């Protein structure tokens, strides 16, 4: 809803009352009259722009992106950093299924594999193996059928 169509003093449906203020910074001449709605919208846009800039900075820096992904997995599966690192050491920094060394290719970052029924963490897999298990519905019988089919 546009602020020009509402008279000053109007109470909107969300409870905001429109008032007019003169906005200025020290040493500047007063700017045009702004309503509280305009002030609120400008503040929201400013915060939105800052959040987008923070996200872009993380995406542009591979180290920050890797740290964010790891922290998300730790939170999602209720792991400590020590537990995660221990899994990496036990697996020799390799996928538990295909034995591909993590970090050698773009697609080989560690993914936490877990049982969808019990939510128990099983280990670390590369993205391909993790996706494969998921597409085969984590069903051992389906996996055996796939092995038979391939052979």
Topology of this protein?
Layout (H helix, E strand, L loop, with lengths): L19 E3 L10 E3 H25 L1 H15 L4 H10 L20 E4 L6 E5 L1 H9 L4 H11 L1
Antiparallel strand pairs: 1-2, 3-4
Helix pairs in contact: 1-2
Characterize the structure shown.
The chain contains 5 helices and 4 strands, in the order ββαααββαα. It is mostly helical and 151 residues long. It folds into 2 domains: 58 residues, no CATH class; 72 residues, His-Me finger endonuclease fold (3-Layer(aba) Sandwich), CATH 3.40.1800. The strands form 2 sheets. It has a two-stranded antiparallel ribbon with strand order 1-2. The protein has a two-stranded antiparallel ribbon with strand order 3-4. Helix 1 packs across helix 2. It is elongated. The N and C termini lie far apart (65 Å). The relative contact order is 0.07. The model has no long low-confidence stretch (mean pLDDT 80).
Number of strands: 4
Q: Could you say which overall geometry the principal axes of the C-alpha atoms support?
A: elongated
The percent of residues in helical segments reads: 40-55%
Beta-strand content bin: 5-15%
Radius of gyration: 27 Å
| Element-level helix/strand string | EEHHHEEHH
Provide mean pLDDT, rounded: 80
DSSP helical segment count? 5
Low-confidence stretches: none
């Amino acid at each position: 809803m546009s602020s020009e169509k509402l008279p000053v003093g109007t109470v909107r449906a969300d409870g905001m009352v429109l008032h007019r203020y003169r906005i200025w910074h020290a040493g500047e001449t007063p700017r045009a009259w702004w309503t509280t709605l305009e002030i609120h919208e400008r503040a929201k846009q400013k915060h939105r722009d800052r959040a987008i800039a923070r996200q872009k900075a993380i995406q542009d820096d591979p180290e920050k992106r890797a740290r964010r992904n790891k922290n998300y997995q730790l939170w999602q599966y209720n792991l400590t950093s020590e537990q995660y690192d221990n899994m990496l050491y036990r697996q020799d920094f390799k996928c538990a299924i295909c034995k591909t060394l993590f970090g050698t290719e773009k697609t080989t970052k560690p993914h936490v594999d877990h049982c969808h029924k019990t939510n128990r963490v099983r280990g670390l897999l590369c993205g391909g193996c993790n996706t494969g298990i998921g597409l085969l519905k984590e069903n051992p019988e389906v996996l055996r059928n796939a092995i038979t089919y391939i052979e």
